[in-house]
Design goal:
With about 260 residues, this protein is of the alpha+beta class. The protein contains 9 helices and 7 strands, in the order ααβαβαβββααββααα.
């Protein structure tokens, strides 16, 4: 990792102030890719974050009743995100050209309210399937490869798409950000998978009802936990009262 000290030492070797140049680039990146701080109220659940900050009932209490969203902009994370978007577009185009796939398919559900977009929906050998594309760091890619199972949150995301769209087959398409190797995990809507989705929907209904009619849940994580570190409403959460209502985290199941 390049440290500030290293960069300052390199900067001293020339007349061009590259440290200042980097500062200006980062300011421009924040303007281009950062999100404005704003107060907003979510109207629905996003399947894509249920396996991350969306596991937390307190997160949804704020999100569904109104919260102050603050962007935790980081140039490295932003670059990774933008590269991921570019990879998605590239791979989606390949699916579209080869299989005639539908891309960015809108997914909606009323109770609980859910809104999202499935990356691809396609037919292969007379089988219809819903797919989601994930670009991941090589260390995670190797873990998935060694375990031969997809990430539980990613699995749930596609299962929800399958459930809402009425499609019995799905898959996860992982690409390593560094090596560009690929892993494909196919799966079906088995009775166990269906029960997992229905239990998740029941949890979402409970969380939503509490956010609209109940009380503030207690915090399930510590302030230094990565769930809080990357949550866009953690500032409001940790400046607010502790909360006395214990609600369960969303329970993820291994694929």
């Amino acid at each position: 990792m390049v440290t500030k000290i290293t960069q300052k030492m390199l900067n001293a070797k020339g007349d061009l102030d590259v440290v200042e140049m980097q500062k200006r680039l980062n300011a421009r990146r924040k303007e281009m890719y950062g999100r404005p701080e704003e107060h907003k109220t979510k109207k629905s659940f996003a399947p894509s974050n249920l396996g991350f900050v969306g596991k937390c009932p307190r997160h949804w209490y704020y999100a569904l009743s109104g919260a102050d969203y603050k962007d935790k902009f980081d140039p490295k994370s932003s670059a990774a995100m933008e590269n991921g978007k570019d990879a998605h577009l590239r791979i989606q185009k390949e699916y579209e050209l080869e299989f005639g796939a539908r891309i960015e398919v809108e997914v909606r559900w009323a109770d609980p309210p859910i809104f999202g977009f499935a990356d691809v929906v396609l037919w292969v050998n007379e089988i219809e399937a819903v797919g989601d594309i994930k670009t991941v760091k090589d260390e995670k890619f190797r873990r998935l490869e060694a375990s031969m199972t997809p990430d539980a949150g990613n699995w749930l995301q596609v299962l929800i798409y399958m459930y809402i769209l009425g499609i019995d087959n799905g898959f996860l398409h992982y690409e390593s950000k560094s090596s560009h190797e690929e892993l494909f995990f196919p799966f079906s809507m088995t009775p166990r998978a269906l029960k997992f989705v229905e239990n998740t929907l029941a949890w979402m209904r409970m969380v939503r009802d509490n956010s609209l009619n109940g009380e503030l849940p207690s915090r399930p994580f510590s302030k230094t936990d990565y769930h809080c570190k990357y949550c866009p409403i953690s500032g409001q959460c940790w400046s607010d009262e502790k909360g006395n209502l214990d609600l369960p985290l969303l329970k993820l199941e291994a694929p």
